[in-house]
Specification:
Oligomer: single chain
Largest sheet: 6 strands, antiparallel
Structural class: alpha+beta
Number of strands: 9
Strand order of the largest sheet: 6-5-4-9-8-7
């Protein structure tokens, strides 16, 4: 008879038990962080996860002990350990490091919010955002995610898939023009342009976008050409011999 604790994780099996419960709880806090600075009560976490209250309370206290979660009175928030791990993951990403000079240049050239994103399943995961502090309606930030089919940068990313499950007219157009466009998406009078980085079917799909007033974004010389130039420069930097170190090779793989 096996003496394995039912909550122990077999390294060769998918996450179960303690790890799955902790991941579900942390996902709730990650989603909350992108929308409000307020913490979450035990009851709110229970409702959001659908887990038993006793299990959630026990897991939260264990996460507090590990400094992944911090408790302030009756509320829980992401702890500094999670912040440190998230920052380390972003800073270690070779794609982000290769893109930063072009992202900063693009922001200076256009005056628009500039974002870098990659495709993770059906979602866009944002690796960087520059600008937009005065627009609280823009919820994206480094580490946040959104459904790819609901965003302009997501359309650009889906156009890079080598064998997409669904191909619609918008994706075909992006493949032909190397640009995705949407107006009045999350804010009336604003528009977003996105450009894929690299060719279709090569490595991890990545793209950059600019978001600003429609009047500015619709100006080809002011925004569209700099956007495509920045995407090309990032691709060249990723493929330059000087950037071919072990981390960069993972991006290229």
């Amino acid at each position: 008879m096996s003496s394995r604790n039912p909550e122990e994780q077999d390294p060769g099996q998918p996450p179960t038990g303690v790890l799955r419960r902790a991941a579900r709880i942390l996902d709730v806090f990650a989603a909350k962080a992108g929308t409000s600075p307020a913490g979450l009560t035990l009851t709110q976490v229970v409702v959001a996860t659908g887990l038993p209250q006793a299990s959630v309370h026990r897991a939260l206290e264990q996460l507090v002990a590990l400094h992944w979660i911090r408790r302030e009175g009756m509320e829980y928030r992401l702890g500094m350990r999670m912040v440190e791990l998230g920052s380390a993951a972003v800073d270690a990403d070779a794609l982000r490091l290769a893109a930063l000079p072009s992202l900063r240049w693009l922001h200076q050239q256009t005056g628009c919010i500039v974002q870098l994103g990659v495709l993770d399943g059906d979602d866009v995961v944002y690796l960087e955002r520059i600008g937009g502090e005065s627009l609280p309606a823009i919820k994206t930030r480094a580490g946040s995610r959104t459904p790819a089919r609901q965003s302009t940068i997501g359309t650009a990313l889906l156009a890079l898939e080598s064998a997409p499950s669904v191909v619609d007219l918008a994706i075909v157009r992006v493949r032909e023009s190397r640009i995705a466009y949407k107006r009045d998406g999350c804010l009336e009078g604003f528009a977003c342009l996105a450009a894929p980085i690299g060719p279709q079917g090569y490595g991890r799909p990545a793209a950059i976008s600019v978001f600003g007033s429609a009047r500015r974004v619709d100006n080809e010389q002011q925004v569209r050409i700099p956007l495509q130039s920045a995407a090309a420069a990032i691709w060249q930097r990723l493929n330059a011999p000087a950037t071919r170190h072990p981390v960069a090779e993972k991006v290229r793989a």
